[in-house]
From TrEMBL:
Residue ranges the record marks as coiled coil: 77-104
Superkingdom to which the source organism belongs: Bacteria
Name of the molecule in the record: TetR family transcriptional regulator
Keywords, ordered alphabetically: Coiled coil
């Protein structure tokens, strides 16, 4: 089973779409959003498209997320509320990402344990368990 990866051109288009959507909605453009759009896991995406992420997407995303000049007539309280909303959204997105990573680590740990047991069984290794367990 081979996964057909998108071309660099397709990835750039997805990145540009996410950047445009971020400008339109006022949200922060994230690599996670690009990964979702392309249907790729983070590790796969980063492994195959790391130069595009660091050289193409992140500089544009940082420019787009820079605070803009306060709108005419906006008070500091309104600006503060908008900042808090943005920070809460980003916090929520980061918490979701941490949960995804934790689950991935859990699954990889289980797979490694299963592979270790299978290898030991195939090699004829006998485990001697401690009486203190």
């Amino acid at each position: 089973m081979t996964l057909e990866l998108p071309t660099d051109t397709q990835v750039k288009q997805a990145m540009d779409d996410i950047l445009a959507e971020a400008v339109r909605t006022g949200r922060t453009a994230t690599v996670t959003a690009v990964e979702r759009r392309l249907g790729l896991r983070h590790a796969t995406f980063y492994r195959h498209y790391q130069p595009l992420i660091t050289d193409y997407f992140r500089p544009k995303a940082q420019v787009g997320s820079q605070p803009t000049a306060t709108a005419a007539g906006a008070t500091d309280a309104e600006t503060g509320r908008e900042t808090m909303k943005r920070l809460r959204r980003e916090n929520t997105e980061l918490r979701k990402l941490v949960n995804i990573y934790a689950e991935t680590i859990r699954q990889l740990t289980l797979r490694a344990s299963e592979a270790e047991k299978a290898l030991e069984a195939q090699a004829g290794v006998t485990q001697i368990r401690s009486w203190r367990q």
